[in-house]
Design goal:
Largest sheet: none
Distance between the termini: 86 Å
Helix content: over 70%
Order of helices and strands: H
Shape: rod-shaped
Strand content: under 5%
Structural class: mainly alpha
Number of helices: 1
Length: 53
């Protein structure tokens, strides 16, 4: 009984910190995916110098 309150408070605090870390990582992954998706939608860039004709 004496340990239940400190244990639950510590466990919840660590859980919140873990969610914050996961949230930041998920944001970075989402940014990378968005950049990749925009590059895929743009298509190939093609040659920089086009032949005449």
């Amino acid at each position: 009984m004496v340990w239940s309150l400190p244990y639950s408070l510590t466990r919840n605090a660590l859980g919140v910190m873990l969610l914050r870390v996961r949230g930041d990582t998920a944001k970075e992954v989402e940014r990378v995916c968005c950049v990749q998706r925009s590059q895929d939608m743009a298509g190939p860039s093609g040659p920089l110098i086009r032949p005449p004709g």
